[in-house]
Amino acid sequence: MVAGEESIRGGSLAFVELMRAHPYVEAVLVFNDLMAIGAVHAAHTLDIKVPGQVRILGIDGLSLGEAVHPPLSTISIDREALAARALDVVDALAAINFAETAPIRYVVRPRLLWRESA
Description:
alpha/beta, Rossmann fold, four-stranded mixed beta sheet, 3 helices, 4 strands, 37% helix, elongated
């Protein structure tokens, strides 16, 4: 695992560091899509074929991932469902005048957007 700044540049630098330390890595799961875009860029700079030599997968589901080559595969977070569940929690708490209650749990399932980078 390599830590990096949450940006395109941070993803690029972290990918370079990862590949120097572990040149035979076959797949990389990146913290967010911006960092994953940086990783794809760094792979091009290092002449590493994506997905031929390494598969890269981001997390966010940003449409910006379609603008890179190869298009970025990503775990898409359903923001609308997440916001709706957050409002459900607020509504439930408001109904009991924000009194203490048992934990309220909802599951919002992400979905894989298979593009070409993985």
